[in-house]
Known about the structure:
By secondary structure, the chain is mainly α. The protein is 79% helix and 0% strand. It has helices spanning 4-17, 25-44, 48-65, 68-84, 88-102, 109-128, 138-154, 158-175, 184-203, 207-223, 227-239, 246-262, 266-323, 325-361, 372-381, 387-397, 406-426, 430-440, 445-452, 456-470, 475-484.
Amino acid sequence: MKHFFPILALTLALFACAGPGRPSGEETGAAVADLISEASADISAQRYDAAMDKALQALEVSREDGSVLNEVQALRTIVGIDIMTSRDADAWEKALQAETLARPQAARPEFKKELADILISKAKLCSYAEISPETGRNDEGLGYAKEALTLAEEANAVEQQCEACFVIGSLYINKNRWTNPVDPDIYRTAGEWLDKGQTLADTYDLPRLRRNGILFRSRWFQQGDRNEEAIQYFEQVLATLKEDDNLTASSLDDRLVRLYTRTGDYEKALDTHDDYVYHIQNYIQQKQDETLQEMETRFQVQEKERALERGRYQRGLLALALLLALSGLFMVLNHHKKVRRRNEELQKVNDTKEQLIEFLSKDLRNPASACSTQLEQLSSSAHSLSDEEIRRKIDDIAQDAKTLNTEVAGYVGNVLIERARRITDIGLSQREIQIIRLSAEGLKAADIAERLFLSVNTVNTHRKRIYAKMAVKNVSDMIRQATELGIL
Length: 488
């Protein structure tokens, strides 16, 4: 027994020496690239919290290794996630950090592309600040976007060129936002930049950027009051789409429904709305299939990892058992502890998969969940809350893991925030929302007036304003659109 502990120490030291050494710079770069790639996949699936975790890991690894390029790439990924989740102040801070690192290296092609991406993000943030004539930062944003375009052309980075063109066009559209009538030179310039971006998106087959171009083009046509030309343009684009590009098709259908309504072609508007529903359902099914496949793959990978881990421990236990029975016992206990933890993780993946199926296949107002009442209340009041308040309330609901999985909660929170933003864009007041809800109960104008202590004329005036803001013609259309927005 007196030699037991020296032998144990020697054995453990030998195993430690046989372990992996410090990763090389090439291995670190590959690790950062893998983390950023995984973060991008999470962004596509709208798992923003998971994406941020991986991007922050990439940032930590790159800083430990001292790789400036890897650090810039990680910061650029974080900026993109912050913009998508409306954390504009955080995005601006990280963009400045990335720019400070990238500018001294801008002569190198790989840094040109990264700096172009960063400047495009800064230009977008300037564009988003355009909420009133006093807060306009369009000229500042144009400076960033045009410099980004120059860098992207020098680096032959087509996606960055295309995105820079669209952002420049959007900023010129913003410059006319508070001008009545619009400045024709600025309007024409905006269209030229949108044409340039669209040509790049079509030539190099860039579906995501083509969708962005459709959104900008819709704003441009609307600003110029060119409904008929917009209809013709969107119909032509729709006819050239790939059959499985349901997301772009639904975006086009949504805009065509509004345009047909404005031009009085209600029959086409109804038919196109049916197409919109069809494409949205197909898109949801596509995302559901992708999510399930990804979860299944993750499950299989974790199963293989567990099998490999079990095999490694079994071989190690066999070797140690020849030397020390007690050391073998210790390894068995440690192994079982890890197996239990891994099983808990796998169970959590299964729970997430089941909840996600429920939420993807049912409306948020009627989920197959014990927390349906809380979600319904939050959905109804989301339009009056800030993004942070919505996320906080979703987090509160998700505190009990048996009620709502945190990953699904994040997905639901993003859906509610998007609905709230659409309500804000429409510009409905609290009084108008009251009238919409009372109308949905079947109350007539006189009943609503009595309930709210208003005159019938006041109620009818409110309804006319609601119709104009929502681009509808009657109560049933108003109620249907309010339901889609989560007001009802």
